[in-house]
């Protein structure tokens, strides 16, 4: 499989060393919090679970998925609360918030049209993952409902990534 070794080479060396240490799960937890809060700019989120499995081994799939779901859900919840309390203008003024207003408006429309139940679907898909977090915060959605729907979508996404990675290794 050619893709995964290239991904490991593109990861910062300090991160690879940390993920190979006894602190791997704590490091992964922090990485997934950043990923959930949409602050993961040095590596695409789709590569974190497969890269983790490559480093930690196939037998670590359940703990990796558990850490992924917990961390990403916490990260999304933090972003949700920032949207809820800070509002649109607050987020758009922040340099770390890299969503363009036009893209945010599109996802606002999705949330208005489909309601809260679009959150797990968007969390389970490539390229829309986490994008409904901010509109949900703007809409002042219930915290418990947001956390539940966010986690459901994340479970589906991370299990699909792990399954594809494990299946690809068996097919080669």
From TrEMBL:
Membrane-spanning segments: 23-42, 54-79, 114-134, 146-167
Q: Which residues form a coiled coil?
A: none
Name where it's found.
Cell membrane
All copies of domain VTT, residue ranges? 61-158
List the InterPro entries hit by this protein, alphabetically: DedA_domain, VTT_dom
User: Secretion signal: which residues?
Assistant: none
Q: Which UniProt keywords apply?
A: Cell membrane, Membrane, Transmembrane, Transmembrane helix
Topology term for the membrane: Multi-pass membrane protein
GO cellular component: a single term: plasma membrane
PANTHER family, A to Z: ALKALINE PHOSPHATASE LIKE PROTEIN, UNDECAPRENYL PHOSPHATE TRANSPORTER A
- Put simply, this protein is called DedA family protein
